[in-house]
TrEMBL record:
It comes from the Bacteria. It comes from Sphingomonas colocasiae. This is FecR domain-containing protein. Pfam families: DUF4880, FecR. Residues 116-207 form the FecR protein domain. Residues 19-59 form the FecR N-terminal domain. The lineage of its organism: Bacteria, Pseudomonadati, Pseudomonadota, Alphaproteobacteria, Sphingomonadales.
Length: 317
């Protein structure tokens, strides 16, 4: 048995099938395979099971490539003329400085210009000067402006849950797009949606104003507003909708595809669901946001799916 045959046998019986297929894909696309390796690869892929795993992993990598591919209006430079190589090295130092400035600028636009902000899968908590508390959902930002007779917070993006300290002499006001929410002491959330927002009350009473009109909300009520209008008040289960502010999510009768999409925003990586049939199943779930991996493990048993873990991504199939 040749060294290559021994390596092929070790790969086949010594590794997980997906890892085995991933290794062959990596090697076969490197442009450095020897003739002996090519023959070994072809023999390996003649096994129907190996061929199936190879096709599945190849498809997954294709999905990931499309997910991170730059927009159509971005031109990728694929080749560098040999005569420009030296100039390119000099330019690289300049480009590194420009790139650092771009990163700093992006940080300012998304985080630093606000009093409190979250990015990525992170959530945040802030205790304000008057004792009021704010929980920031992922991708959220607020500015705080406390003055003599008013406490004002601007929700620039995302969603925030407010537990407001009562002070009748200093109303608490949240500005969000084309409207505002005014309270004395209560607990509620405001979620930006375009030029407006969606307000949900879990305790107390708030007044939502937009376009010259207003509506009052009490516990388990919700309203959405946009530029120049207030929507209809709806009854909701505020405890479930705002459970993220307490560190978990509650789902009742929701398609698995929707559940995974919502959980993905809180996961420090990417979760991909590649099983359409399983995605249509309606499930009940309570997911602790600090234990998402444990929920995925339980999902494998309860829904007969398989979770494949690769660096930075979990594929559920």
């Amino acid at each position: 048995m040749t060294g290559i045959d021994q390596e092929t046998r070790r790969l086949k019986f010594g590794q997980d099938p997906e890892e085995e297929a991933l290794r062959w894909i990596t090697r076969s696309t490197s442009g450095e395979m020897s003739d002996a390796e090519i023959r070994a690869f072809e023999r390996w892929r003649q096994d129907p099971e190996n061929a199936r795993y190879y096709a599945e992993v190849e498809s997954i990598l294709g999905d990931m490539d499309r997910a991170v591919r730059p927009p159509d209006n971005v031109v990728q430079l694929r080749h560098r003329p040999r005569q420009l190589a030296n100039w390119g090295r000099r330019f690289a130092a300049m480009a590194a400085g420009i790139a650092a400035m771009a990163v700093i600028g992006q940080q300012y636009l998304t985080v630093w210009q606000y009093d409190h902000a979250t990015q990525g899968a992170a959530r945040g908590h802030a205790e304000l000067a008057d004792g009021s508390k704010v929980e920031l959902n992922t991708g959220s930002a607020i500015d705080i402006d406390y003055r003599g007779n008013e406490r004002r917070v601007t929700l620039a993006r995302g969603e925030a849950f407010f537990d407001v300290k009562r002070d009748p002499s200093r109303p608490f006001v949240i500005g969000a797009g084309a409207g505002e929410v005014r309270v004395l002491g209560t607990a509620f959330s405001v979620k930006r949606e375009g030029d407006g927002a969606r307000v949900t009350v879990i305790r107390g009473k708030v007044r939502v104003s937009a376009g010259g009109s207003h509506v009052d909300l009490t516990p388990n009520q919700q309203v959405a507003f946009g530029r120049g209008r207030n929507g209809a008040v709806a009854g909701v289960n505020a405890g479930e909708l705002l459970s993220w502010s307490r560190g978990f999510l509650v789902f009742r009768g929701r398609p698995l595809a929707q559940v995974v999409a919502e959980i993905d925003r809180y996961y420090p990586g990417m979760i991909m669901l590649r099983n359409d049939r399983a995605g249509q199943r309606r499930i009940d779930a309570v997911v602790h946001l600090d234990r998402i991996d444990q929920w995925i493990e339980r999902l494998e048993d309860s829904q007969n799916v398989t979770a494949t873990r690769l660096p930075g991504v979990v594929i559920i199939s």
